[in-house]
Write a structure and sequence with these properties.
The protein contains 19 helices and 20 strands. By secondary structure, it is of the alpha/beta class. The strands form four sheets. Strands 6-7-8-3-9-10 form a six-stranded mixed β-sheet, sandwiched between helices. A six-stranded mixed β-sheet has the order 16-17-18-13-19-20, with helices on both faces. It has a four-stranded antiparallel β-sheet with strand order 2-1-4-5, with helices on one face. Strand 4 and strand 5 form a beta hairpin. The longest helix has 18 residues. The two termini are 14 Å apart.
Amino acid sequence: MNALTFEDFTVTFAARNGSSSPVRGVNLHLAKGRTLAIVGESGSGKTLTGTSALGLLPDTARTSGRIFLDDNPIHALSEKELTSLRGRRISIIMQEPMAALNPIMTVGRQVEEGVRLRSDAAELDVRQKLADLFREVGLNDVEKYRSAYPHEMSGGQLQRVMIAMALARDPEVLIADEPTTALDVTIQRQILQLLSNLQRSRRMAILFVSHDIAVVAQIAHDVAVMCNGEIVEYGTVEDVLRRPRHPYTRRLLASHPEGRPHKTLLPISPNDRSPAEPKRPENGPAAIPAPARKPRQVLRTSGLEVVYSKGRINKRSFVALRGVDVTLNAGETLGIVGESGSGKSSLAKAILGIAPVTAGHVELFGKRLDNLPVRERAALRRRCQIVFQNSASSLNPRLNVLQLLAEPYLLHAKPPAGTIEKSAGALLEEVGLPREMLNRYPHELSGGQRQRVNIARALASDPEMVICDEAVSALDISAQAQVINLLLTIQRKRRLAMLFISHDLQVTQHVSDRICVVKDGAVMEEGPAQSVFSPPRCAYTRNLVAASPSLHGPDGPAPGMPAATVRGRIAERNASPRA
């Protein structure tokens, strides 16, 4: 029996220049006790489809078709009737916990609000229910977490709070909207395992929305592939991921770096006309060969230590890096992998001179930063640039693309005024964007386009080294492939040294020449990208590799990457979705 059904469901928005339908003719059947994943690129209509089941649509939206919860039609319910269903029969885990939670309320109070809505339970019953929920989602130190504020908790802990909040009224259907985005692989594995366990113990149906096909392979029974508002392929996870029929599904799978030859361009959308990507040979993707010149060292850290002070009142300190020794040559990519809080970003900040180096030293282009006067140190920064993780927050929303790209020119090169627009336009073309985008603002660009602007801005000062700090982690699989291709091509063209920081082992292995594995601020393991994971020498690396989601399921890993130990229910084929 189906817990949630969409029948020919369409969402339309009226506009001055006509109407648009970001969701069209959707037919889905979510069976009780199963997980149905909706997968697709950003803007495909995944989230809009999921939130439609709760009636959480803008006032300007118009719908047609039908939605059933069990056998009860809910598409035409009033707001009052929908409110009575939300949380009690159908609930949702939002993508961004920090945006969904009230920053000035403890998480305990926020979860208790949901419990109180359930009934007229006594205060003691509410506190007991909260304790039971926290333990069920793995927050076992109940009193500690009950009194914590959102900013005092890690990303994985916040996601557990969101799950507890969604379960407070014992719903029959749970909608999980990108619940593992931006989490490192070990926390991601824990959240996926938690959702699987909760589903089995509660017999819930889960509608899982994601852009990550490898994650979907771990948790879903059934998969619906969405493109431009329509379901283009639908079936069991085994059928869709192993025997894809639709070209769009095949392209999404091909865009994933797992199993791809090292440092080759990934297959992408035929609609992507990026001039930064050279024409591929007829027999496969274009390879990016390693530089043949004698390597020139551009970075060396020796015994690097970074210690952060907790504050003026609390004198305790936190050691972010301890005795880190790394080197990087011109034209080479060094991958830095590890869990959240392992010290990856602190290493980037120390290299850029924006983190407190308490011991050891950083040497850039043959010069020790601690021995340089301020002016010379600033000049070195022009030669070393960074691409940040969050493409939206790292761009000033008040400036258009031309103004954003003009800043580094004005700061470092100080060119004649008439040449800035021409140079900025050339940069845009180099990163695969048309010159017409110079007049656009960040909110008018997609995530992939914003990240290309970030890369263009980093290239404006003509650097010799670029630090990519989780530069592709927030992008969908197609945009990720495009940005990876762009980075590989630009690196070859400009002979850039690249420090690639990521929690995604497969992406890092694909783009890197060497990889360092970092834990608690120390380098645990280092080696060539093609061999450091096969097999890993230390237990920590083995755990990271085991947690990394794989497209291959029970049949084994991609070459050079052991299979993930968390495989979800890819082997359970008891039932198929109804078409």
